[in-house]
Amino acid sequence: MLELDMDFMGRDSIIHPLVIQERDYTLLIDAGLPGQYEQLQKELRAIGTSAETLDGVIFTHQDLDHIGCLPELDAANQYATFYAHERDAAYIRGERPLLKD
Fold first, then answer.
1. How far, in Å, CA of 14 to CA of 8, rounded?
2. CA-CA distances (angstroms) from residue 31 to 72, 88?
3. What tens-digit pLDDT sequence spans the chain (101 residues)?
């Protein structure tokens, strides 16, 4: 479990993306808020991996605190597969406006 610091309505808080590693496969579940990419990279490196070496990313839903680092992850890793529920996919791809900001 990773820890990403954030400000939530004026209060310090932490969100917890999860990494699952099995043999030579690394999966990230959720990707934090926009602007947290460097913090996410630091947390990934602390456990011996990085955005560039992820095999996949699961977005549990389209809330901004779950998909925020998607653009940087996509730019950093052309081989990772991104997974989302079909009902959330259009929001995550930016084809529809997010339901919550």
1. 9
2. 10, 15
3. 999 998 877 889 899 999 999 999 999 999 999 999 999 999 999 999 999 999 999 999 989 889 999 999 999 999 999 999 999 999 898 898 888 76
